[in-house]
Amino acid sequence: MSAPTVHVVDDDELVRAALSNLLRAAGYAVQSHGSAAEFLAAVPKRSPGCLVVDVLMPGLNGLELQAELVRRESAMPVVIVSAHGDVPMTVSAMKAGAVDFLTKPVDKVKLLSAVKEALSRTADAGDAGEVQALRRRCESLTPREKEIYRRVAAGLLNKQIADVLGTSERTVKTHRARVMEKMQARTLAELVHMATLLKLQ
C-alpha cells in the first residue's frame, strides 16, 4: 500500500499553497487540488490518507465533497476548513464524520493536530478493511478447510494434521492448497499472518 497522503482542496491558490507548505514542512506527503472535481478525478477510492477541504468552492463545496466520499464508501477522513463556518454547518460536518472543523485563518497547531488524528483514523480503517476482507475469504472455507487452516496456523505438519483428523496426508495437502487459494495467500508465512489477524489460532 502506498504512503498516506494529505490532500488539500481549496479554490484559493494562495491558501492552498500555504496549507500545503505547512503540511510538507511537518513531514507529510501532500497533493493539492483546486476543486472537488479535480480531487475526485485524481484520487482512487481506496487511496490512503486524509482530506483538508475548504467549504465554499465553485462546483461541489466541501460538505458536498464529504457527502460524495461517504456515498462512494471511501474511508478517507476529512478535515473541514472555512472562513464562513457557523454552528449548523459545523454540526452537519461533524455528524457526517469530519475529524475537525477549523476556521480560517487556520491555526497551525490545530491543523497539524487534526491531520495527525485523521491519519491515525485512516490507518485504523485500513486495518479494519483488511480484516473484513480476510473474514469474507475465511467464510468461503468449508468446515473441514477451516479445521485444517487452524492446525496449519498452529504449526502442525500435514502428517500430524492427518493423524489428528484421521485422514490421509494427501487429503490434508489438497485441503491446504484450497485454503491457500481461497485466502489468496502466496506463502505459508502469509497464511499464518492472516490467521493471526483473524484470531484463528
Keywords:
Arc Repressor Mutant, subunit A; 5 strands; Rossmann fold; elongated; 201 residues; 9 helices; alpha/beta; 12% strand
Kindly describe this structure.
It is a single chain. With 201 residues, the protein is α/β, with parallel strands linked by helices. The chain has two domains: 5-128, Rossmann fold (3-Layer(aba) Sandwich); 140-198, Orthogonal Bundle (Arc Repressor Mutant, subunit A). 58% of the residues lie in helices and 12% in strands. The longest helix has 32 residues, at 108-139. The two termini are 26 Å apart.
Secondary structure elements and pairings:
Elements: E1 5-9, H1 13-25, E2 29-33, H2 36-42, E3 49-54, H3 62-71, E4 78-82, H4 87-95, E5 100-103, H5 108-139, H6 143-153, H7 158-165, H8 169-183, H9 188-198
Helix pairs in contact: 6-8, 6-9, 7-8
Q: Which percent bin holds the helix content?
A: 55-70%
Mean pLDDT across the residues is 88
Number of domains: 2
Characterize the largest beta sheet: strand count, sense, and whether it forms a barrel.
5 strands, parallel
Which outline best applies? elongated
How large is the radius of gyration?
Answer: 23 Å
The end-to-end span amounts to 26 Å
What is the helix tally?
Answer: 9
| Text of the CATH class of the largest domain | Alpha Beta
Alpha-beta content class: alpha/beta
- CATH architecture descriptor name of the largest domain: 3-Layer(aba) Sandwich
Q: Element order, helices and strands? A: EHEHEHEHEHHHHH
What spatial order of strands do you see in the largest sheet? 2-1-3-4-5
CATH topology of the largest domain: Rossmann fold
By CATH, the superfamily of the largest domain comes out as: Response regulator
By DSSP, the count of extended strands is 5
